[in-house]
Every structure is written in structure tokens, then in C-alpha cells.
TrEMBL record:
Keyword set includes Nucleotide-binding: yes
Stretches for region Disordered: 279-301
Organism this protein belongs to: Halorussus caseinilyticus
Protein name: ABC transporter ATP-binding protein
Family, similarity comment: Belongs to the ABC transporter superfamily.
Domain ABC transporter: 8-273
Any one GO BP annotation for this protein: transmembrane transport
One Pfam family recorded for the sequence: ABC_tran
Keyword terms, alphabetized: ATP-binding, Nucleotide-binding, Transport
Segments of skewed composition (Basic and acidic residues): 279-294
């Protein structure tokens, strides 16, 4: 559960990539990939936010921008009130030094092996960052600290694991080493980007339980990213956290996990819920609740609401103008970018697009 203290604040965040088109002239054919567009999100101390969305919806780019690994092209990312990128320049005089911000925001990836030096033992890999950040620690204390954390993530006896090389570890063990490396920095927030996706199904829950246990014990916030709603839900619900849904670069719904899943407001959240068997496809429609299966290209996203090309409830209004994010509960924690959440919006009198209906459909809610 989060406190009122804001650790990380994304404000109208935008990350666009310029890339060359497929034509003969690389300059005239440049294209803009709108990977993240207008995302605002505050993450508090001890807060857990799980972001879910289809491949290419911008989750990784959002996560990297949140921890300072990707420079935004618009909007801002602040750590405890200090703009991360303004803290970076040598001429700046930040309230929090950039190095400290980077230490406080850690990341664990889908492929932890790529972040481990194959020629170094676990002990050596884990000692290096400690040496940098806590130079006052002597070699013995450093080793003791590393061993303590290795044991803490369930790798026992720790001496045995400490002297292994990455190729002598299983995928799950490598992921635990990556977790130790993050925790040794005493971070305020850990970005876990598809951190359990590559693990065997049987190990996923075990790893997520470990993340949850450590989150509480170390008072760390988590930004958990997954393309899989059941994983995102597991983390967010168990941590009493929030679930965010991304579609084509935009955060279309955000709220307490149980509330978003019990009463999804965005038609795209309903699609994700439909596609996750344990969340009740049995009671819902037999076909996915979309008019169009294909996901549009983020180089040229649809006008208005980006989901309008697939949405079963889209009208001319959705095609023309993008809806603002509005609150659907009294405390403003459940937010959605959809006209259907506003009773008196012009949407209700707008003409439905081909194959769409504005009728209220509650087959994917539990209410
Ligand atoms: N460095 C880059 N240069 C150009 N385009 C990029 C770059 N990084 C990401 N993209 C594009 O930005 C969009 C969002 O990518 P991103 O990896 O953030 O999505 P994602 O939701 O994490 O998807 P996945 O789960 O497949 O990684 C995609 O269209 C991707 O091709």
C-alpha cells in the first residue's frame, strides 16, 4: 500500500523515436514512432503499479523513461521532485544528484543473463556496484552483505552460489541474482520489466511471491511490466496496488487492481480481461469484444481515441477527438480515457462507426 509520499512522477510523458522509412531516401522517409504519448502517473513510496498491454504498446519504453534510461522527447520524469534529466547536466545544480537518482531507481529485465558478465562469479558481479556506492565497506563486509542478500532471495547455501559463474545458474537463479543486485543498491523503486515472463510457468508464481515479500520487507516501490494480465494482476492484487493498461503508447486505464478488473471501464481493458481465461471468459462473449483484430501501427496511430478502429463501441466522436483521462470513482484513483465513462458526453448522441454500437454492454464486468 502506498503512502502520500511521491517517489516518481511522470507528467505528460512522451517518447517518440525517429526512424528511417523503408524508401530510397532516408531523409525524406523518416518516420516517427509514438512509443509513449501523454502518460501521467505518480508512484508513491511502497507503491506497486503493474502495467499491462499488448506487445508494442510502449510498456518497456515507459519503464525505461521512468527509471532514467530513456530520455523523454516531451513531458517530464521527476524523482522526489527533481527532474531526472535536468539533474544530469554538469551545469545543473540539482536538489538530488543524478548518480543518487540512478542508484535509487533499479531495473530487472526479462533476460537477466544479458546483464551478468559471463566471466565473473556471482560474488564478483554483485560486489562491483557495492564497491562503487559504498566505498567505505571493506572487502569482508562487502562479501558478508552480498552473501546475506543471496541467502535472502532463497539461494542457499549462499557460498556455493556466490562462487558460481552465470552459465552455472538456472534462469530463475539468474533472475534472483539480478534482484539481489537491485536490492543491494537500497533502491526506492525497482522496475521489473517482464521479469517473470521467461521463467517456467511453475516458477513464475514463486518469483512473484518473492518480489512481493521483498517489496514489503525492503519498503521498495515496484513498477511491474507485463504483457500478461494474469501476472500483472497477481502482483497488483497481492500488493494492494494499481493496475495500468497501455494501448498504443497511451495509459488508457489506471486504478486499484481489483476495481479495474471487477469493473473495467475501457473497452480495451475488457478485451484483455476477455483474453485471460481465469478472469471469466466463460461468462463473457465467445468472440473477443473487438471489431478488428489487427493492432494499428504506432508510426501512424489512429486519430481521436487510438482504440476506435477496434472498439466495439466507437462513434464518430471517438474517431475525431481523443477523450481526456477522467476519474470514475470519488477518490480519483480509478481513471480512464473513454467517453463512455461520462454520462452526459456528446458521445452518446454521436453516430456509431460501422459495426459498432453504443449500447451498454456489461457482460465483461462482475457487477
Ligand atoms: N529505440 C527504438 N527505436 C525505434 N523504435 C522503437 C525503439 N524502441 C521501441 N521502439 C518502438 O516503440 C514501440 C513501443 O515499443 P516497446 O518495446 O516500448 O513496447 P512494449 O509494449 O514493451 O512491447 P514488447 O512487449 O514487445 O517489448 C514499438 O513500436 C517499438 O518498435
Amino acid at each position: 500500500m502506498s503512502s502520500d509520499e511521491t517517489v516518481l512522477s511522470l507528467s505528460d510523458l512522451e517518447v517518440h523515436f525517429e526512424k528511417e522509412g523503408g524508401g530510397l531516401n532516408p531523409f525524406s522517409d523518416r518516420e516517427t514512432v509514438r512509443a509513449v504519448d501523454g502518460v501521467s502517473l505518480d508512484i508513491g513510496a511502497n507503491d506497486v503499479v503493474a502495467i499491462v498491454g499488448e506487445s508494442g504498446s510502449g510498456k518497456t519504453t515507459l519503464g525505461k523513461a521512468a527509471v532514467g534510461l530513456q530520455e523523454p522527447t516531451g513531458g517530464s520524469v521527476s524523482y522526489r521532485g527533481q527532474d531526472i534529466w535536468q539533474a544530469k547536466g554538469w551545469r545543473s545544480n540539482p536538489s538530488i544528484p543524478h548518480d543518487e537518482i540512478r542508484r535509487s531507481l533499479q531495473i530487472i529485465h526479462q533476460d537477466p543473463g544479458s546483464a551478468l558478465n559471463p566471466n565473473r562469479t556471482v560474488l564478483s558481479s554483485l560486489s562491483a556496484p557495492l564497491k562503487k556506492w559504498e566505498p567505505s565497506l571493506g572487502p569482508e563486509d562487502r562479501e558478508a552483505r552480498v552473501l546475506h542478500f543471496i541467502e535472502r532471495v532463497g539461494m542457499t547455501p549462499p557460498h556455493d552460489y556466490a562462487h558460481r559463474y552465470p552459465h552455472q545458474l538456472s534462469g530463475g537463479e539468474k533472475q534472483r541474482v539480478a534482484l539481489v543486485r537491485a536490492l543491494l543498491m537500497n533502491p526506492d523503486l525497482i522496475l521489473a520489466d517482464e521479469a517473470v515472463s521467461a521463467l517456467d510457468v511453475s516458477l513464475r508464481v514463486e518469483m512473484m511471491d518473492l518480489l512481493l515479500e521483498l517489496q514489503t520487507q525492503f519498503d521498495t516501490s515496484f513498477l511491474f511490466i507485463s504483457h500478461d494480465l494474469s501476472n500483472a494482476r497477481y502482483i497488483a492484487e497481492h500488493a494492494d496496488g494499481r493496475l495500468g493498461v497501455m494501448y498504443l503508447g497511451e495509459l488508457v486505464e489506471l486504478g486499484p487492481a481489483d476495481e479495474v478488473l471487477r469493473n473495467p471501464q475501457h473497452p480495451y481493458t475488457k478485451v484483455l480481461k476477455w483474453a485471460t481465461p481465469e478472469l471469466g471468459r466463460d461468462e463473457g462473449p465467445s468472440e473477443p469484444p473487438v471489431r478488428e483484430i489487427d493492432i494499428p501501427d504506432p508510426v501512424n496511430p489512429p486519430s481521436g481515441c487510438r482504440f476506435h478502429t477496434r472498439c466495439p463501441n466507437a462513434t464518430e466522436r471517438c474517431k475525431r477527438t481523443a477523450p481526456d483521462v477522467t476519474s470514475v470513482d470519488s477518490d480519483g484513483r480509478h481513471r480512464v480515457a473513454c467517453y463512455r465513462s461520462t454520462d452526459d458526453d456528446a458521445y452518446w448522441n454521436s453516430d456509431p462507426l460501422d459495426g459498432a454500437t453504443v449500447a451498454i454492454d456489461d457482460t465483461t464486468t462482475d457487477d
